[in-house]
Amino acid sequence: MKSISQILSIFLLVVVGVQAQQEKGITGSNNWLNNWTEFKPNKVDYGEADQILAGNIAVNTKLYKKNKYILQGNVYITNNAVLTIEPGTTIIGDYATNAALIITKGATIIADGLETDPIVFTSNKGLKKAGDWGGIIVLGDAPINKFGNSSSINLGLDTSLTTYGGENSESNSGILRYVRIEFAGKKIRGEENFNGLLLAGVGNKTVLENIMVSYAAGDSFEIYGGNLNMNKMVSYKCSRDDYKFNYGAQCKINNSLAVRSSFLTSSLGSRCMNVASYDKKEEVDFSKKQTFVTATNMTLVNDSENINADIQSGLIKEAIYIAENAKINFKRTVVSGFNPAVLLSNKIEINDENLRKLGFEDMYFNSCNGNIFTEFNQNNEDLEDWYGNAAFSNVYAKSDNVETFINTSDDKKPDYRLRIGKITVSSE
After folding, report:
1. pLDDT, tens digit, 9 for 90 and up, residues 74-120
2. Surface-to-core class of residue 58, CB atoms within 10 Å of its CB (0-12 exposed, 13-18 middle, 19+ buried)
3. What is the secondary structure of 308-362 as a DSSP string?
4. What is d(CA 138, CA 101) in angstroms, rounded to the nearest whole number?
5. Domain ranges across the chain
6. Rounded CA gap, 80 and 382, in Å?
7. Residue 55, SS3?
């Protein structure tokens, strides 16, 4: 008969093993997507607006749950003013005027919703679709890697009010917590699409938690420079990139989700994560920090009922794209259903020095047509040898979404946590 101490040891090993199996991908003893998210926003009736937001807001202003607001045209929060939004408030972006909310450098947004009473930005069209209105832009004075440590956002906006960048990595642009942004990403003639949420030069005192961007025609989240901590982000079925980092962004993103559709793509690229340090090399000061993203406990999933068929028909591309001179560190992340999981720019020379800047540890690659490749090169033996080393503890599996995640069939309250016991395959 085993002693009590032996039985206790076995029990603890089992408990620890179960906990370890739940460590990859989004985590939580409960499904943190419940209560505040909305996966069918086109079915929600938000009612009619009874208040108008327009022009420049240069004094401290508060929006109340009892009202419904329509955002008309480009609304700028200026003059270091604070825009406070009460939990449960609805702000409706006007389709006809290409509405957008811009928090200028020095101004602050306090959109601090509750799990049971989130703040919602949405469209005023009867049949809502991606790109109905602009989106939200937050501009700060944290460092970027462009010459002069300053730049501006175009998109048909007043560039005198859209400057960003500076020296203060700890700057505070406010709070975005328990916030939903729906159907944003308007295409402006002669310009690119707006994004759901653009954070440019935003510092690390800014609180960014529990933000959901759904059905964006541009990127869901775009980060230009700055020093940010992001937790429990959700990007759902956007047309372009779910998370895009550029211009020296120093970002830690944790416990966050991207759900892609095979049928929502853009000719400009549609990836879960796109990590770059610049668009044009000549605009960058290489004495400054280049983009460095630490991504922990992410779940990146293609919401396809037949992943293999969609891959063969060319509907699915890579989940993660890494450009030259960018540094990343992925840990405990699930990548499920892509072609391939990771694609490196062909400008990245494959050597020990560069691969040490591109960390993939404790990953779970599932049902991907290849794991890590260099652009335009089908021979990835060096990369497989490197990241397949047992020291990295990367594992590989082949199963559909129903088997892989707790519950993806519930279109109201899906659960994208890994099923307990899924991570049992070899890292060979």
Report:
1. 999 999 999 999 999 999 999 999 999 999 999 999 999 999 999 99
2. middle
3. HHHHHTT----SEEE-TT-EEEEES-EEES-SSSEEE-TTS--SHHHHTTEEEES
4. 8
5. 48-296
6. 52
7. strand
